[in-house]
Write a structure and sequence with these properties.
Helices cover 34% and strands 22% of the residues. By secondary structure, the protein is α/β, with parallel strands linked by helices. The strands form three sheets. The protein has a seven-stranded mixed sheet. A five-stranded mixed sheet has the order 9-8-10-7-11, with helices on both faces. Strand 2, helix 1 and strand 3 form a beta-alpha-beta unit.
């Protein structure tokens, strides 16, 4: 059922699905410490409809562009593996990864986390993975999923793939006994349950908030049978290939952005009310490295 393999994607044709320049030309000199090659390419994974993500991230990109006096180009990539490869192949200076995607970006592309999303008090925000069923379903626990179908997001997703599979393992349910359907994204997994195409679905707390706000999901008709421990929110990373002076400058600029600069992105990540970005390190995401080891995940699982 694993729809994509990272190593098989190395030779894939264009890795970047959508691209857009952030604002007007700034006149920054190509090769400068804050403007390598005359631009900064910022990759985003498609954890939500790209048409919705683009304008939200454009606000953040425009603010960063003003700070660094360098054009910031947004790249909404095809999937998790494409983003890892794009950074490894020198096509991205910056990238936001899901927590588990970062684990493999760290090892394969030397992605270095520098900032993530905070609440109004300046504390790093978290979210949770969840498994939901219809309110009238006979399924009351993860153990009851044996012989049933479940919609997951996409291979490599932290809350939409690895953690629900970890829940199966923890409760002694063989993956082979469950019909796993990779729906293609968090919204699609939720809709598969709403439309009665599966017995259960992963719905993380971020997608739950977004769907409720959009009126596409009414929790009263459904039940949550499992939830994960809190997951630290997505890191924004800088390529390890970048000049140290650039990494220092872009980190400083990100941490100086105001809540209004990141509020629209924060809304997708269930950060309300938003605060500024806060510093993170590899240690922040150690639980995800541990999860990958526990599940024996490799880059081929992304």
């Amino acid at each position: 059922m694993r729809a994509r393999r990272l190593l098989a994607a190395v030779a894939a044709a264009p890795l970047l699905l959508l691209a857009g320049c952030g604002g007007a030309e700034t006149g920054a000199e190509a090769g400068g410490a804050t403007c390598p090659g005359g631009r900064i390419r910022f990759g985003i994974e498609p954890y939500e409809d790209p048409a919705k993500l683009k304008p939200a991230y454009q606000v953040l990109a425009d603010a960063l562009q003003r700070k660094l006096n360098c054009p910031v180009e947004l790249k909404i990539v095809d999937d998790y593996s494409a983003e890892v490869l794009a950074m490894r192949n020198g096509q991205l200076e910056l990238a936001q990864f899901g927590p588990l995607g970062y684990v493999f970006a760290s090892t394969m592309a030397d992605a270095r986390p520098v900032a993530s999303f905070a609440d109004a008090k300046g504390a790093l925000t978290t979210y949770t993975a969840g498994i939901w069923v219809r309110a009238d379903s006979p399924i009351t626990s993860v153990k009851d999923l044996a012989g049933k179908s479940i919609a997951l997001s996409s291979p490599g997703s932290t809350s939409g793939d690895a953690l629900p599979r970890y829940a199966l393992k923890t409760d002694g349910v063989a993956e082979s006994s469950v019909k796993i359907d990779y729906a293609g994204g968090h919204p699609e997994a939720l809709l598969a349950l709403v439309n009665g195409k599966v017995d259960a679905a992963e719905i993380n707390s971020q997608q739950l908030a977004s769907a409720q706000a959009a009126g596409t999901f009414k929790p009263d008709g459904f039940r949550q049978i499992w939830t994960s421990a809190p997951i630290p929110n997505d890191p924004i990373t800088v390529s390890g290939k970048a000049d140290p002076a650039f990494r220092e400058a872009v980190t400083k600029a990100l941490l100086e952005l105001g809540p209004a600069d990141v509020a629209q992105v924060g809304a997708f990540l269930d950060v309300d009310p938003p605060g500024p970005l806060v510093a993170v390190t590899k240690d922040t995401y150690q639980p995800l490295f541990d999860l990958a080891a526990e599940l024996n995940l490799t880059e081929e699982d992304v």
